[in-house]
Write a structure and sequence with these properties.
about 325 residues; alpha/beta; 2 domains; 9 helices; 15 strands; about 25% strand; globular
Length: about 325
Amino acid sequence: MSTRTMRAIRIHEHGGPEVLRYDEVPIPRPGPGEVLVRVHAAGVNPPDWYLRNGLTRMPGKAESTVTLPVIPGTDVSGVIEAIAADVDDLAVGDEVFGLLRFPGFDGSTYAEYVAAPASDLARKPAGVDHVHAAGAPMAGLTAWQFLIELGHDHPSPFQESRHRSTVIDADTTVLVNGAAGGVGHFALQLAKWRGARVIAVASGAHESFLNKLGADRFIDYTKSRPEELVHDIDLVLDTVGGPDSKRFLRTLKRGGAQFPVLPGDFDREQTAKLGVTVSSAQVRSNAAQLAELGRLLDAGTVHVAIDSTFALADARAAHERAARGHIQGKIVLTVA
């Protein structure tokens, strides 16, 4: 019996975008608890290019689970073509989207088909197409788990204590740094959904975009330093990170909190003196939370912005686009 094959992007050696190869490989078979998804679109996320560049061990993991060649990708939207015998809450023909096997590098969504854990999938909102649905899982769940509900008890590799979200309501002012990016534009909208006043920080090219998403104030970081303009903030969500992240501590009121999405350089004595909290988390696959986000997407309360789309065969160009930065929303691969 001949083996059915598909097209997929694989990494055979680590390096730049040029190492992404468009290969012909066997179609995977769903194992226990899994379904086979015919991929319509796959989101492009930072872990994809971290893997391509040579990062093979997730923070918090004792060792690497990556064996080359590997199919990158974690975000998917598509249609179920087959299900394992023990899956009873999904059916062939269902349109689904999800963040697969994260944290980890074995999502394998840059392909025409993927074997996906049923527990990582939610039904795709009927009013949202596959491209926009594929842009939602990792970025949307990151914003959700930082701001709304963590939703799991797994320890964070970035801190000793469990991440605790803070109350966000009409009395809250939230500053989002990197507000135009994948996580940032979701965070802005979720904070607005909860009634908060939101200050968006990004480059000037994104001002109109962020104002349309509901930002109450926009700061162009190329012209002004946010920490010199705003004070008494309740919450800072910093999607940029790095050694300069600690400058936002000066914008917080006593009792306020800063949530760095990427690891930053913070001094415990300084945060204690300021009377503020710094807390981080590691996003994890969560179908229930994704279903809640899906309802907001279907209602038009939250929107997925698409920076650009590329055919699966053009994954190299998608990663080159990501490397240029200043992304507005999400980059998505489409599968014919």
